[in-house]
Specification:
By secondary structure, the protein is an alpha/beta fold. The chain contains nine helices and 34 strands.
């Protein structure tokens, strides 16, 4: 049996039993062939044998040289047995090999049938005892045409046009998890025999090994999908022969090496999806030849060097994903030519630097942008006002600039980007105040401004953002009080992070309205947050993390904290004015893991609290 762990396929000792079964099956097949040849003289010319069949589908190959467990040999046996079985049931419909050899069209169809069965066995079909020949047996073997098999479509002449055998795309419970399957198998060279195929989808079949060079023989194919397997090796240069290819999808594998320059020959390509492999080297300049390209995704690889300026020739491009690589240099100004671009993904390249080329390129020309992702790089400068002004009436829904060295202020015009759902500016050197116009972003679901030097107060207009699920304002120099309007965010807000600022005053009782909140972090606000801990905190019945340490709270801990049945971490340390006993209800919280109470004036007695330490449980 084969198991898959961390994308590596491992074959277990069950293979021994498998090989025993194979030997038994082969022996039984030979006996069957012998009985058929002796017991059925009528129409004997219609009976097939392995050697004659091999002369047609494997010309130049000596059958005796084939390993009898090889997928090609198993396919020969399967075809012979099932043809002769059909011959026994339907004598008039069976075809003799002599007639096939004299008919080029029939020979091509037989070759494709053989290639289908070989493909099945090569990828690992029938490997599991409980799945033996599952895909084959679940098809209608009484039919002389493989065009009736699940996932196979043919043209009027009987030639295969589609191989739609992705295990993840099967909607029928009868075939779910039984298409090809099992793993520990490779793509055989026979994949190149489907010369009329327009669409091939073998995704999610745990295929290992390399892509055979015979892939370059599929000169009619328009969509080739091999994603979500464990394919290794390089992308063969022969891929450049597929001049009719419109979509190449090989994401989620283990490909290495460079993208061959021959990819530039695929001038009909509209989708090139190679993300999440281990490809390296430079992005070839020949990519600029693919002027029909609408989707280019190279994310999650090891590409280095600069972004080629030739990418500006891809004027039909809608999605560009180069995230999670090792690219360096600046964003080429030619990127402004991509006027149809909706997704620009350059995050997590570390060595990309310079400013956003926005005054002309992004600000004026790229007006279709919906998602800009530049996080985790070394970009600098300000957020260009031109970009904000020219994109404000468009469909920009996501602006991700966190973890760079951007500076300056947030332009108030950002409030005009009314479609914005995600705004991440954290971990930069932004300064100034948070503009009140940010309250106009009523579609906003996440607002991340932490780890900057923002000052001033939290604008009360933040209460308008009733779709907000995440609010991160930590590690700034914000002052003033927590606005009571924050209590209006109770519908969706799950995370509220205000730690390490200089916020003063009390916790507003409206905080108790945030019924979806799982994390409330007000830690270390310069010992300026004061007053009592409001009992309304007990209403936050989804809360898992409550951090109020490093402040100046006084009075007792409200017993209502015992209502927080999901609470795992509670920090109250450094509040020297907290007094009284720790409520016994805290000790009865089954989910609690850590409690920090050091540097307070609290007393712990009874109620199961005797085992608690003042630092942590």
């Amino acid at each position: 049996m084969c198991t898959k762990a961390r994308r590596k396929v491992v074959c277990h000792d069950g293979l021994i039993a498998f090989f025993v079964l194979i030997i038994i099956a082969i022996t039984a097949g030979r006996v069957l062939l012998l009985l058929l040849s002796k017991g059925n003289n009528h129409g004997s010319s219609r009976l097939w044998d392995i050697e004659s069949l091999a002369n047609i589908v494997l010309p130049g190959v000596n059958v005796s040289d084939l390993n009898q467990t090889a997928p090609q040999y198993r396919a020969l046996e399967w075809l012979v047995v099932h043809n002769n079985n059909n011959n026994d049931r339907h004598r008039s419909s069976s075809t003799s090999l002599t007639s096939v050899k004299d008919d080029d069209a029939a020979e091509e169809i037989l070759l494709e049938r053989f290639s289908l069965v070989t493909l099945y066995y090569a990828i690992g079909g029938g490997l599991k005892e409980e799945d033996q020949d599952q895909w084959l047996l679940l098809n209608d073997l009484s039919s002389s045409s493989h065009c009736d098999w699940y996932g196979i479509n043919c043209d009027e002449s009987g030639r295969v046009t589609d191989l739609l055998l992705s295990s993840s795309s099967s909607s029928s419970s009868r075939f779910k998890n039984s298409i090809m399957m099992a793993g520990c198998g490779t793509l055989p060279p026979e994949i190149g025999n489907f010369r009329n195929a327009k669409a091939i989808n073998l995704g999610s079949n745990y295929i290992v090994g390399t892509i055979p060079t015979e892939i370059g023989l599929l000169t009619s194919v328009s969509r080739l999908r091999l994603s979500q397997n464990n394919i290794q090796g390089t992308l063969p240069t022969e891929i450049g022969n597929l001049k009719r290819l419109e979509g190449l999808y090989v994401s989620g594998n283990q490909l290495v090496g460079k993208i061959p320059s021959e990819v530039g020959n695929l001038q009909k390509l509209d989708s090139l999806v190679l993300d999440h492999n281990a490809l390296s080297g430079n992005i070839p300049s020949e990519i600029g030849n693919l002027q029909q390209l609408t989707f280019l995704y190279f994310s999650g690889n090891r590409f280095s060097g600069t972004i080629p300026s030739e990418i500006g020739k891809l004027q039909q491009l809608i999605g560009l994903g180069l995230d999670d690589n090792r690219l360096s240099g600046t964003i080429p100004c030619e990127i402004g030519n991509l006027r149809q671009l909706r997704v620009l993904g350059l995050s997590n390249n570390t060595f990309l630097s310079g400013t956003i080329p926005a005054a002309k390129e992004i600000g004026t020309m790229m007006t279709q942008l919906g998602d800009i992702a530049l996080s985790y790089n070394n970009f600098s400068g300000t957020i260009p006002l031109e970009m904000i002004v020219n994109l404000q009436q468009q469909q920009l829904t996501s602006l991700r600039l966190s973890h760079n060295t951007f500076s300056g202020t947030i332009p108030s015009e950002i409030g005009n980007m009314e479609q914005l759902a995600f705004l991440y500016l954290g971990s930069n050197t932004f300064s100034g105040t948070i503009p009140s116009e940010i309250g106009n972003l009523r579609q906003l679901g996440s607002l991340g401004l932490s780890n900057n030097t923002f000052s001033g107060t939290i604008p009360s207009e933040i209460g308008n953002l009733q779709r907000l699920a995440f609010l991160g304002l930590s590690h700034n120099v914000l002052s003033g009080t927590i606005p009571s309007e924050i209590g209006k965010l109770g519908q969706l807000l799950t995370g509220l992070y205000l730690w390490n600022n200089t916020i003063s005053g009390t916790i507003p009782s409206e905080i108790g309205n945030l019924h979806q909140l799982t994390a409330l972090d007000l830690y270390h606000n310069g010992f300026l947050l004061s007053g009592t801990i409001p009992s309304e905190i007990g209403n936050l019945n989804q809360l898992r993390f409550l951090s109020l340490g490093g402040n100046n709270f006084s009075g007792t801990i409200p017993s209502e904290i015992g209502n927080l049945k999901h609470l795992t971490i509670l920090t109250l340390d450094g509040n020297t004015r907290l007094t009284g006993t720790v409520p016994k209800e805290i000790g009865q919280l089954e989910s609690i893991e850590k409690v920090w109470l050091n540097h307070t004036s609290l007393v712990m007695t009874g109620g199961g609290l005797d085992d608690f330490e003042f630092c942590e449980i």
